[in-house]
Amino acid sequence: MTKLSGKTALVTGSSRGIGRATALGLAREGALVTVHYGRDEQAAKETVALIEQEGGRAFPVGAQLGTPGAIDQLFAGLEAGLREHTGQTVLDILVNNAAATTPGDAPEEVTAEQLDEIFAVNAKAPFLIVQRALGLIPDGGRIVNISSAVTRIAIPTQVVYAMSKGAIDQLTLHFARHLAPRQITVNSVLPGATDNGSAAFQTPEVREPMSQLSAFKRLGEPEEIANVAVFLATEQARWITGASLDATGGSLLG
After folding, report:
1. Which CATH number do you get for residue 29?
2. pLDDT digits (tens, 9 = 90+) for 112-132
3. 3-class DSSP state for residue 249?
4. Whether 161 is catalytic
């Protein structure tokens, strides 16, 4: 029997990259996975197809986080899919992975609109998703938030992204205390430079310097971050809560 047999999961932003790898990892352990996407429905369907090819179970749900009505849309699709596949609306595992990135401008060039957009997706939406999901998550459930190593180091061009991910770490800390009486664990995973398949990481001028950040002198793979998230979703991680797990390949060693 796999570690998550009979469990249900929602992974936001799971049409590609770390989210897709996490959805696949949870499905391999037996979970029914809700594959959330913002804009790319086809990519989400590809994630579902990959899961089903391996004998797993999944269904897609679309909602563009950070826009009006997105949380209602997400949970309407989630609950409908859970009812269809299980006959009930229990959500055992929530992985907040979806995020918007900054364009890499100097701090002086960041606009108020960009600030609002990044925080709406990266901080406000995860809070509202956790808040809404608490009516579906049973005692002993799992919440995993994908944060970032940029919350621990200074990269001026990523200040807004880092601020928004710092909010995720605070969400983790305070909800971990709040939900401990229900035996619900809440943890963050901090990825470093990870090859998420984007075009930027395929260019030597980006790939080489980013690879040097890790103690292993290479980029991380989405599966390596996903493995940490999946572990936190299992019973083996029941004694870990309120933690921020470094998954940077030693990038924060100094």
Report:
1. 3.40.50.720
2. 999 999 999 999 999 999 999
3. coil
4. yes
